[in-house]
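Re: weekly structure request thread

Next one in the queue (196 aa):
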Amino acid sequence: MIPILLSVLNDDEQLYASFKSEAEPHMNALYNFAVSLTNDRDGAQDLVQETYIKAFRFFDKFEKGTNCKAWLFRIMKNTFINDYRKITKQPKQVDFDNIDNFYEEIKASFVSNNHLEEEIFNNLLGDEITDAIADLSDEFKTVIVLCDIEGFSYEEIAEITESPIGTVRSRLHRARKILFTKLYKYASRQGYTNKN
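Done, posted below.
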């Protein structure tokens, strides 16, 4: 998806090659983060694409030798927030013809109610863990995903979320306590707790 997109943007071959080598390795991590933000595969792909377009447009401002992954994550987070603000300011529009058509198509067929995050982390995390993370508020979910799944440092998370490092530590601590409470029985069943 992105290599095709970038080839369209390819005005300066040296700039394109530099951007591709710096930014492309982080595509999967960005997609996973986009899914955790949007809870929608199509929305996640759109968010990744928009992030890469903005990053390429402003790549001349990127300082070589700094953390490109954190830079891309910050662009994504800001893009998501700005898009969310636009959506919340617009009135909801409903196309009743589409709803009727959808209902007619599905009323006699099986509809899966699996959550997207369950599908994505199916082999990585158990259902209970995935559900517990999905139930967190956005502030807590973001720091858990960035720290415990993506492996960012506190400083990088502070840069991405544009929050003080103390706030990052506090949110991470609180998110982990919430997860501990929700997942204690699961951990016991899996043999991760000490019965003494």
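The mean pLDDT is 77. The longest helix spans residues 165-190.
Next request, please.
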